[in-house]
Amino acid sequence: MERLLTMFEEADPFATWWPTIAALAVGVVITVRTLMSGQRCPNDNQINEQIVVVTGGNGGIGFEIAQALAGRGGRIILACRNLKAGERAAGIIKRELGCRTPIISPDEDDDPADRYFVEARYLDLCSLRSVHHFASQLMAEFERIDIVIHNAGVVFANTHVPTEDGFERHSQVNYLAPFLLTQLLLPHLRRSEQGRIVFVSAHAHQAAKIDFDDPLNVGTWAVKFHAREAFAHSKLCVLLATRWLARELKGTAVTVNCCTPGLVRGTRHFRNSPLMSSICVKAVTYPWMWLFMKNPYEGAQCAIRLATDPQLKEVTGEYFNDCEIVQSSEPGQDKELAKKLYMQTIRTLESVTKLTVDKELPLEMESELRLEAPPDAEADSDAETETNRAAEGASVDRQTLVE
């Protein structure tokens, strides 16, 4: 032991290049990691008592978004397909925020976590009927909705197994269902002092293939799509719909933008990825994923800024990356393509879900949406039917009061 200590004491770090090389390597790794982590949300603005809907909020990026917005005073609704995971996430958020909040006076609740409103609601984006039911519940319970963040999505899903509504899974979960939910909640978003809609797109939209005559990709050739192509197509649709919906909402207090979180590790999106195919592949790819990909907290920052920054109050129809407006792909800027996709989407949803959009008023004026049950709604339970009727009645009563 004494001999080993003597060797360290007499060692000359400048007698070899290895310490210098090691220091440079560590410096490069830290620099790359810092650059790849992206920008942080540049504000800490509060959104006290604003009602926020976050889809896919039970894990990954959605969890980080929900936790950040709850910490800023928002009333958070986690829209999750796995309700148990959503309830568990809601409990974790309230517990962690409560641990950071000191008890100010003995008269207040013993548990600071009780000051935070975070709850989970069931929403399955693979079912348009579930989207209708979820929207009906929210409209019956709340007078307004302030922020909707469409974070949930799928990648590497089986493109040959359609949803119960007959659509390709990436197309419905990543685009059609969020689009429908947005349309259904628009009346309540307009009641907000400053409603905000945030869609989560992806860098992958730049590689999307899209047919101008069939931008929604419901043609027979759609089955030839690989999962990567289907994912890219769905994210381009999100971007295009954001562009045109912003035009539709011109003159209202509602803004709509989309963002890319970047390449993010640590989410369930990779559970079907080839990178997760075996232990050997994981062992090789994990170090590189750690170096070049963001963690969920870093990936959530752009959406957090879009939901909270007052400087973006008048910004709408834009594409964000690392908390800044950036250029999208050329198809993502095509206004005619955006209009074509938007109109085809409306027609498709009208035929499948009986959603009606009254276009007699000018685009600047408020459109009226009528919630009707999907064609197969007769299969719903009596309880669900009563809930939908109650929601419609509440919505009509509130609209009468507003007018």
TrEMBL record:
Signal peptide: none annotated. The chain crosses the membrane at residues 15-36. Residues 375-385 have a biased composition (Acidic residues). The keyword Transmembrane applies. Residues 366-403 are annotated as: Disordered. Keywords: Membrane, Oxidoreductase, Transmembrane, Transmembrane helix. Pfam families: adh_short (PF00106). GO terms for molecular function: oxidoreductase activity. This is Retinol dehydrogenase 13 isoform X1. It comes from Drosophila kikkawai. The lineage of its organism: Eukaryota, Metazoa, Ecdysozoa, Arthropoda, Hexapoda.
